[in-house]
Amino acid sequence: MPPQEIQEIYSHTVQQVLDLTGIFVFAVAGALTAVRKNFDVIGIVVLAEVTALGGGVIRDLIIGDVPPAAFRDLGYFITPLFAAFIVFFLHPQVERIYATIDIFDAAGLGLFCVTGTAKAFAYGLGPVQAAALGIVTAVGGGAIRDVLANEIPMLLRWDREIYTVPAMLGAGLVAALVETDTLNAITATCAAVFAFAFRVLALRYNWRAPRAWRRNSEVFEKYE
Amino acid sequence: MPPQEIQEIYSHTVQQVLDLTGIFVFAVAGALTAVRKNFDVIGIVVLAEVTALGGGVIRDLIIGDVPPAAFRDLGYFITPLFAAFIVFFLHPQVERIYATIDIFDAAGLGLFCVTGTAKAFAYGLGPVQAAALGIVTAVGGGAIRDVLANEIPMLLRWDREIYTVPAMLGAGLVAALVETDTLNAITATCAAVFAFAFRVLALRYNWRAPRAWRRNSEVFEKYE
Amino acid sequence: MPPQEIQEIYSHTVQQVLDLTGIFVFAVAGALTAVRKNFDVIGIVVLAEVTALGGGVIRDLIIGDVPPAAFRDLGYFITPLFAAFIVFFLHPQVERIYATIDIFDAAGLGLFCVTGTAKAFAYGLGPVQAAALGIVTAVGGGAIRDVLANEIPMLLRWDREIYTVPAMLGAGLVAALVETDTLNAITATCAAVFAFAFRVLALRYNWRAPRAWRRNSEVFEKYE
Q: Which of A103, B155, B166, C14 has the fewest C-beta atoms lying within 10 Å of its C-beta?
């Protein structure tokens, strides 16, 4: 039932290696959140799975690809367990290389916004909606992780470096490429690299998105 | 695949105008929540989209109408962006007319509980379940908004004017109308107006739902 | 469309009695949470429904059984209302017998992890993924309840007796039974009883899952 035309940007093997890499780094980020929140080993596993697979599962439910890919391919399921295992034993070391993790996480963000948008297109969604689902694929797992950890999702907060904007740019680029019939392995990689680089620069230079216009106006204060 | 018999209460154009109106006012409420929580522009857009479309997406996933209407009709998707744009620049003015917004929001509530129930019926659900999905359509988006903003959903709290009860009454009325084969544009509008008026009166006179019987009993206190 | 081979472990009547028992005790736990959080009667009903049906609805959406069983069988829907009604009037008495409730809740946990895994298998999922959905069926409703109540889900916290581990063991047992073609009413009951007993013992002896290895290391402290 899955219409595979656009989805197959890369060869199956390349696609799977990229997917598993993205899943792994997202799972590490989720597991580290659990360690920081003082959760037990079950909490570490749950947050690793949810962070890594949540965005893709929401996308697949919405486009009607059930059961979602995360529940068909065993590798998708095992990879977060492996990440949780590593974090459980090595979390001090992993924390020390967290700057490196951020780079990997940015790579996952770049990759998932591209493949998520392409998959939504392949299931017949329009360009704007496909791009929106690409963004959901990239940021949805992290949002569920933060909700479960009883925190405001990072993507909503103004005091965090921009996270959703790189995914928006990557997903928007893919939508434009599909519309102009120029999506292929090379252009898709360029879109993913662009989103990745934008995120890395945002981290490096603390780029933030603006809050509401005149947010500090006196009119507003009385509502706080 | 969508079985359209009952769903078409109104002509397509009327239905769409009503839908977009409801989506717009819900999106304004979501965007204002984001401004109050000091979220950035991305947070404003995300909460506007989620508040406006969340209830309908859950309903469509449950009845099996995928991709959900919100991901098929571009207007459904663009309208919250427009609302977010307005709130971003004009939020002090919008806050000032928040009493007016409450009226619009009540209109959205009345409309969505009616159309949500009718759509669930058209997909073959029983009257109780269809009414439940009508309520979900009306209050689900706001609940997701509050969870993302790390607050207890308004509909659960006893210190807020009743919000779910009007939706329950509207959805229950529609279920009764379908069962008695008397649902049409006029009776549906009456149900929506009734839910709307009930909500407005609840706001005006601070109607609240009761808490558990003898909630302040001494037996209970020791658990707090 | 539902492929019923494996799912029919018990006769239809037995299955339904067990399901409704599990739904009832989960609903009581949800309604009591609402009373403790000082929610109104609507909040009590919502948390009762969500706790009792949430896990099964997520499972059914993922395996593609829509509308979910909870929206087809009216009994599934009415039972939580009945539980909410009882808690609304009798909550001090119910609180007093909460230890008894814990036993019932453990029975629901044991039952749902078994039937959830079996149903996922019947829809074609692999053993690991089916077991994962069995766990989701058992603990998902409680997780949604805690998120709505703005608390960290019990299953993630290290300061609670283990809750997910019994479900994991029960679901894993069922997966092994299906793989070895030995799942029947007797072995399934044994798996459910095993998960149930494990949970009761965990409560009795305060069993807890470990936190991350060397969680208190000095390296970690600076991140807190």
A: C14
Round to whole Å and give the CA distance between A97 and C88. 52
Helix axes C74-96 and C12-36, enclosed angle (nearest 10): 50
Contacts of B150 in chain A (CB under 8 A): 150-152
- Show the tokens assigned to A140: 């949805």
Interface residue A14 vs chain C (CB under 8 A): no
Is residue B186 less than 8 Å (CB to CB) from chain C?
no
Closest alpha carbon within chain C to A68: C62
Question: Using one digit for the tens of pLDDT, what is the confidence trace for B53-99?
Answer: 999 999 999 999 999 999 998 999 999 999 999 989 888 877 776 66
Q: Which residues are registered as beta bridge partners of B211?
A: C40
Whether B143 contacts B188, CB under 8 Å: no
Give the residue-averaged pLDDT of B7-36: 83
DSSP letter (8 states) at residue B211: B
Residue B56 sits in which domain range?
12-208
Which of A163, A168, A191 shows the shortest CA–CA distance to A105?
A: A163
Domain membership of residue C175 (yes or no) is yes
**Is the residue at A216 inside a domain?**
no
The tally of domains found in chain A comes to: 1
Min Cα separation B217/chain C (Å): 8
Residue A224 has a CB neighbour count (10 Å cut-off) of 6
**How far is A84 from A170, CA to CA, in rounded Å?**
28
What DSSP element (H or E) covers A158? none
Which chain B residue has its CA at the smallest distance from C150's CA? Answer: B152
CA B166 to chain centre: 11
pLDDT value for C103:
81
Q: Which chains touch A (3 or more CB pairs under 8 A)?
A: B, C
> Please, are residues B72 and A197 in contact by the beta-carbon 8 Å criterion?
no
| Residue at A55 is within a domain | yes
Question: Cα(A200)–Cα(A139) distance, rounded to whole angstroms?
Answer: 16
Do A131 and A174 meet the contact criterion of CB atoms below 8 Å apart? yes
Instruction: Spell out which residues of chain A touch residue B72, defining contact as CB-CB under 8 Å.
Output: 125-126, 129
Type of residue found at C204: R
Q: Please, are residues C143 and C153 in contact by the beta-carbon 8 Å criterion?
A: yes
Q: Which residues of A touch C62 (CB under 8 A)?
A: 57, 61, 66-68, 71
Determine, yes or no, domain membership for B197: yes
Distance CA A149, CA A9 (A): 35
User: Of A148-162, A208-222, B47-61, where does mean pLDDT reach its minimum?
Assistant: A208-222
| Tens-digit pLDDT profile for residues B30-44 | 998 888 888 989 999
* Partner-chain contact A162 B72, CB within 8 Å: no
Instruction: Tell me what the pLDDT averaged over chain A comes to.
Output: 86
For residue C90, the chain B residues in CB contact (below 8 A) are 213
Is the confidence at residue C222, as pLDDT, over 60? no
Which of C42, C96, C144 to mutate to test binding with chain B, by most B CBs within 10 Å of its CB? C42
